[in-house]
Amino acid sequence: MRRWNGWGEDSDDYALGDDARAFLKDRVGAGTAPRDAVLQQVLEALPASRLPSGAPFETEARLRVLHARGQSFPDWVALRSGRVGPCADGVALPSSHDEAAQALASARRLGALVVPYGGGTSVVGHLAVPPVDRPVVNISLERMNRLLSVDDKAWLASFGAGTPGPQVEAQLRSHGFMLGHFPQSYPYSTVGGWVVTRSSGQQSLRYGRIEQMFASGRLATPRGQWSVGGVPASSAGPDLREIVLGSEGRVGLLTEVSMRLRRLPEEESFHGVFFPDWASAVDAVRAMVQADLPLSMLRLSNEIETETQLRLAGHPQMIRWLQRYLGMRGIDRGQCMLMLAVTGTLAECRRTRRDALAIAKRHRGVHVGKGMGKTWARNRFRGPLLRNALWELGYAADTVETCVNWPAATGLMRAIEQAAHDAMAAENERIHAFTHLSHVYRQGCSIYSTFVFRSAGDPDANLERWRKLKSRVSEAIVAHGGTISHQHGVGVDHAPYLPAEKGALGMDLLRAVARELDPDGIMNPGKLFS
Amino acid sequence: MRRWNGWGEDSDDYALGDDARAFLKDRVGAGTAPRDAVLQQVLEALPASRLPSGAPFETEARLRVLHARGQSFPDWVALRSGRVGPCADGVALPSSHDEAAQALASARRLGALVVPYGGGTSVVGHLAVPPVDRPVVNISLERMNRLLSVDDKAWLASFGAGTPGPQVEAQLRSHGFMLGHFPQSYPYSTVGGWVVTRSSGQQSLRYGRIEQMFASGRLATPRGQWSVGGVPASSAGPDLREIVLGSEGRVGLLTEVSMRLRRLPEEESFHGVFFPDWASAVDAVRAMVQADLPLSMLRLSNEIETETQLRLAGHPQMIRWLQRYLGMRGIDRGQCMLMLAVTGTLAECRRTRRDALAIAKRHRGVHVGKGMGKTWARNRFRGPLLRNALWELGYAADTVETCVNWPAATGLMRAIEQAAHDAMAAENERIHAFTHLSHVYRQGCSIYSTFVFRSAGDPDANLERWRKLKSRVSEAIVAHGGTISHQHGVGVDHAPYLPAEKGALGMDLLRAVARELDPDGIMNPGKLFS
Predict the structure, then answer these.
(1) How far is residue B123's CA from residue B72's CA, in Å, rounded to a whole number?
(2) A150 and A513 in contact (C-beta within 8 Å)?
(3) How does the average pLDDT of chain B come out, rounded?
(4) Which DSSP state fits B164?
(5) What are A49-77's pLDDT values in tens digits?
(6) Which pLDDT score, from 0 to 100, does residue A15 have?
(7) Closest residue in A to B197 (Cα–Cα)
(8) Lesser CB count within 10 Å: N end or C end of chain B?
(9) pLDDT for res A316
(10) Is A117 annotated as a binding residue?
(11) How far apart are CA A298 and CA A342, in angstroms?
(12) Which residue among B378, B399, B421 closes a domain?
């Protein structure tokens, strides 16, 4: 069973050994185990639904609570403390576009606001229920989880928008196809959710961002059905797919999507490469992407993340051997780990691996073989489980991510970590901040930072600590010209920073677009803009 | 000097030999040389400018006429017949963003409508001046033709939006970079024009469409300056670059653009491959693009275009030798020519060429070497000159293009040619219709058809003939689910067919977007939608 107040299945834990615990204590101090609420308390405290009886929405308390929150920091504090806050008054679970459209029509008739629900994995508050004096409903697409059709000549497949990652790939595999979208939320996040939040997967270098995969979509809007896209490319005016991408529920419910597919590759391997310092490593990565090597992933950890990953891995003896080997090759303190992946035909993989490792070598990188890559790939979706383990030891964790052009990349990375330290210094606390570049482009890269700090215990104090951190870090991102999000979206947490990026006219445009399809403003209010 | 009523420089002709003339006569009948108007007549007949004296616009007759029209069929008929129709009352020629913004502000103060002008190469009526009882001005960006900055780490360059193709590439070359956008209009069309019409170049397979190249832009809008884009990728809401792309002047004047660059390749070669029939050829092309071969171009002519190109080439002796060779290889009537290009490092080119030719061979394709490819590449921008030569022999020519998924491609191609024949049959005339696939995607391809028919002599009859053709063909495109344009844009000629593609809600959205930035509707009215 999926955890109601954390990440992953109840049965699945991320074990932190003594060495890892010592490392954390050394970096941020000793944590104090929290006293979390239990689900039963939360259910008992839930206010009654404000929907009239007979309204076509499920109103069972458990269902309402399980759809109330995502995975943002405020979501975690709410669920762990039992102060869940506003919940929808009812949940619709349509099984088809028509049922979804009916649910939306019912919501309108009832004067209810609508918060669409996909996989519940948002980390920026896309699911936040506004505290209003009118009913709110969730329309969850979780039952729309099937492959609807495959076109094996145009390499397209259509899906119910609520299909989660593993079901996307499993249903395609029997047709010899794959999509190739692997965000860390993959076990639960859905194909429709990826589209409306402009998601990016770990192997975007090969498979592209969701924008490149999304061929067409069908929406239920307050003004009726709307379809976008369908052809490979067009010059017939602005591309309306791009309005749906990143719309975060503001223009309607995305119910069905058609996605561009790839054939299953013959081979795939992941490789660890260590560099003596950050400057060499980032130069190597830029050289690889600007040489158009057909790699499927380049993921470069900075010094602190490299050390952290090795210390938390739980294999101290192996790490000592690794360090002995790297030491002989001139790689010591300040080392940075690159994880690279090659995917394709056997010949392509052999060639690409050779070309990439040659570039790495020119930048003093040392290939440590496939073993470390295999481990990384096996655990690629387990990272978020660490958050549970940390929480139970009294530590809070959050992440931010951005994207910027190459000349600004290192400066912004340092500024993000510094802003985090400054924010916590104001709290008289330490923070452990570490970063990797997760997606690379010829023009620049994304920057993904993780923060670990001690929980404050009291939920208000915890939220206050986080708010200082989030605002300082977000201001640093904006000041350096980074986007406020490269892959997580805007939700409510990033909404204050969106105008810096879109400009006043751009914000007016976004509002005009939403107003046109949702004149009464019932669709996911407060997300993207208020 | 550039032709005022046709394509290209006055000094540059496309010679049609006896064999070519015989071929045309055989296909559509003998043409009658037209009696075209001369510029002086047109200038003398031009109504006086309605701008008040002292308005900051050039009102010289010659300048106004030279900005009045593009290269659409109605544009040609207007210029050749001397019935130029509505002209702008004045032309602004700003040299900077600020001057462009001032010109726009002046237009607003004067109550004038604004028709932006780039390279004057539109083939769908983007430059049409509406016949209204108020002044109209052109704001031409032709003086904004310079490289403004290069970022050699992020591989970006910014340009004045009026920079034409050859100046884009020449200015980049000294920095070791290139853009790689080669539409057939390349000698005159501008980087800003490419963006606002969603252009695609001949080597889009390597370099991408203009959407992929356009990093950021600066616009002067009736509501003030607006900037879009800037980072490599973002999930911060809808991508507003995509509103500018294809906006066709409706949201403001695009004055400066930043484009994503590529390094100059080590090598490039073009290769002709002949297939025995269309079915084999199209299967081969689809196999190549779905195998992710890093080709830079795949351009497949159908049977009729293949024959036409060979007959118009003007080297009958060489063609006979070619046919003898192809005949020995089992390729005879029904043959289809594929032009493919490989671009990149020496090693990449060698490998890609080998892989592509292996796929061709599996589909019974015969490589005829680089000679034919060299000729094609040398003449790649000369195609439009043929229109002058045809016109002077009494023939009219026009093109349409679309894009569709693979399963519909052949059916739509046949339907387009059939619709053209049907339209002309109603006129009791013959038409020579031929087609190539010019851009290919894993999902599908673009389809580009050319029509040659006899000029009707009288401009009204000529237009009527074309209108029947254009509407029948456009209806066939819409009926088969093709986009109304893959690379030429919408302008006025395609506007009636846009709602079929965007839907009623989509059209409302486009109008809402334009209204938001241009509340008084002064920007290029009638284009995209009325």
Answers:
(1) 4
(2) no
(3) 97
(4) B
(5) 999 999 999 999 999 999 999 999 999 99
(6) 86
(7) A235
(8) N
(9) 87
(10) yes
(11) 9
(12) B378
pLDDT in tens, A515-528: 999 999 999 999 99
Strands (DSSP E) contained in A324-456 are: 336-344, 366-367, 395-405, 431-437, 444-454
Tell me the per-residue pLDDT of B61-103, one tens digit each, with 9 for 90 and over.
999 999 999 999 999 999 999 999 999 999 999 999 999 999 9
> Do B472 and B492 fall into the same domain?
no
CB A172 within 8 A of CB A151: no
Q: Which of A158, A184, A235 to mutate to test the interface with B (most CBs of B within 10 A)?
A: A235
CA distance B514 to chain A (A): 9
Give me the mean pLDDT over the A497-521 stretch.
98
- CA-angle at B285, arms to A232 and B376, nearest 5°: 100
Q: How many domains does chain B have?
A: 3
Query: How far lies B215's CA from each of A153, B254, B307, in Å?
Result: 32, 13, 41
Please report the pLDDT score of residue A168 as a whole number: 98
CB of A443 within 8 Å of a chain B CB? The answer is yes
CB atoms A227 and B445 under 8 Å: no
Query: Could you tell me the CATH number of the domain that includes residue A305?
Result: 3.30.70.3450
Longest Cα–Cα distance in chain B: 73
Q: CA distances (Å), B294 to each of A439, B22, B131, B205, in order?
A: 21, 40, 48, 8
Stretch A124-145: mean pLDDT? 98
The answer for residues whose C-beta is within 8 angstroms of residue A246's C-beta and 6 or more apart is A196, A197, A198, A489, A490, A528, B235, B236, B237, B238, B239
Q: Residue A232 and residue B441: Cβ atoms within 8 Å?
A: yes
Q: What percentage of chain A exceeds 90 in pLDDT?
A: 97
A426 has pLDDT over 90? no
B256 & B284 share domain:
no
Cα A450–chain centre separation: 13
Catalytic residue among B188, B207, B395, B448: B448
Residue A287 lies in a domain: yes
Instruction: Tell if the CB–CB gap between A516 and B501 is shorter than 8 Å.
Output: no
Contact B224 A505 (CB under 8 A): yes
Alpha-carbon span B233 to B241, nearest angstrom:
11
In this prediction, residue A61 carries a pLDDT of 98
Is B448 noted as a catalytic residue in this protein? yes
Identify whether residues B54 and B195 lie together within a single domain. Answer: yes
Looking at the structure, do residues B224 and B352 belong to the same domain, yes or no? no
One-character DSSP codes across A13-69? -----HHHHHHHHHHH----------HHHHHHHPPPP-SPTT-SSB--HHHHHHTS-
Domain closes at, from B484, B503, B519: B484
B359 and B445, same domain (yes or no): no
Distance CA A402, CA A411 (A): 13
Classify A340 in phi/psi space as left (phi over 0), alpha (psi -120 to 50) or beta: beta
Asked if the structure places residue B496 within a domain, the reply is yes
Alpha carbon distance A96, A145 (integer Å):
10
Q: What is the CATH number of the domain that holds B449?
A: 3.30.300.330
Say if B34 falls within a structural domain: no
Taking alpha carbons only, the member of B223, B216, B207, B261 closest to residue B241 is B216
One domain, residues B327 and B421: no
Q: What is the pLDDT of residue A520?
A: 97
Domain that holds residue B476: 385-484
- Kindly state whether residue B317 falls inside one of the protein's structural domains: yes
pLDDT at B316 over 90: no
Determine the pLDDT at residue B453: 98
CATH code assigned at B131: 3.30.465.10
In this structure, the strands spanning A113-117 and A136-140 are parallel
Distance in angstroms (rounded) separating the CA atoms of residues A136 and A133: 9
Q: Between A and B, how many CB-CB pairs are < 8 A?
A: 254
B238: chain A residues, CB-CB within 8 Å: 242-247, 510, 513
| Contact with chain A for residue B268, Cβ under 8 A | no
Residues B473 and B490 in one domain: no
Cβ contact, residue pair B236, A221, below 8 Å:
no
- Contact of A209 with chain B, judged by CB distance below 8 Å, is answered with yes
